[in-house]
Design brief:
This protein has about 260 residues and is an alpha+beta fold. It has helices at about 10-15, 20-30, 50, 80-85, 105-120, 120-125, 135-145, 160-170, 180-185, 210-220, 240-245, and strands at about 30, 55, 65-70, 190-195, 200, 225-230, 235, 250-255, 260. It has eleven helices and nine strands. The longest helix has 14 residues, at about 105-120. The termini are far apart. Keywords: Plasmid.
Length: about 260
């Protein structure tokens, strides 16, 4: 920050109680909704977009401090209305980009999708999908299939494949006819060996589009290519590794040496 630059907005935010001090304001890059601030539905959903609706850009290189909404529809958020009333200004609906044009607004769309999937609120995600984008929702579907809540004794993902399918239908995704196509586009299975000698077979998919990754996860679980380990993380199964090695072949060789049909 240029010491010659007056930070009137920052000082006002601290004075009005929206931040404890300028140091934390710069670290957080946002105004957070206080825990005791009353929020009706849907604003009380466990979404970082709803919990930190106002982006803050620190002063830099002569550019003054700015604040902006992480999504235009947050203009109706009760806390946003409160801040606007106290400051007497309308907060920019298009985020608060820094001098290089970067803003966290696009990232907040991902937060909204993955936070609600992780919280078991996928129906609420569909109800509030205007705050995110289909590709973010499909990425969150893949995340929900891949990982599990640490307290879930089933350790079988944040969402089931049936739930994942319903979400994909709601966002207009088209299921591919060839179930193995997306999976075979993933990176080849490669083990990670721990010091204890145990092996883990992580699933990597490179830069595939969100829709292909989501369908790959769904089909991979349903057809046995992937399985969840005891910690709830999805990995390649022995069957999946064998079938991947066979590629498009209708027949693959099992670890036992016996031939099997790939369907």
């Amino acid at each position: 920050m240029d010491n010659q630059t007056s930070d009137t907005l920052g000082e006002t935010l601290v004075e009005k109680g929206f931040a404890p001090n300028l140091y934390l304001l710069d670290i957080n890059h946002a105004l957070s909704v206080p825990r005791d601030f009353p929020l009706p539905a849907p604003w009380n959903l466990p979404s970082r977009m709803f919990g930190f609706p106002i982006e803050v850009c620190r002063p830099d290189g002569g550019q003054p401090r700015k604040i902006g909404l992480r999504h235009p529809l947050l203009a109706d958020h009760p806390y946003v209305l409160h801040v606007e009333a106290v400051l007497g200004v309308e907060i920019d609906r298009n985020g608060a980009p820094n001098r290089y044009g970067y803003t966290t607004a696009p990232t907040a769309r991902w937060w909204h999708a993955v936070d609600l999937i992780s919280a078991g609120k996928w129906r609420e995600l569909l109800d509030t999908q205007d705050f995110t984008e289909p590709r973010c929702i499909m990425r969150a579907v893949a995340y929900g299939c891949r990982y599990s809540h640490h307290e879930d004794k089933k350790a079988a993902g944040y969402i089931t494949t049936a739930e994942a399918r319903e979400i994909m239908r709601e966002v207009g995704a088209t299921e591919p006819d060839e179930r193995s196509a997306a999976i075979l586009a993933f990176s080849a299975p490669s083990p990670c060996r721990q010091d204890t000698g145990s092996e883990h077979w992580p699933i990597n998919h490179g830069r595939l589009c969100a829709e292909d990754v989501a369908w790959g996860m769904i089909h991979g679980i349903e057809d046995g290519w992937f399985r969840h380990d005891r910690s709830g993380h999805l990995q390649w199964s022995e069957l999946g590794r064998e079938r991947y090695a066979a590629g498009d072949s209708a027949i693959y060789t099992e670890a036992s040496g016996q031939a099997a049909f790939a369907f």
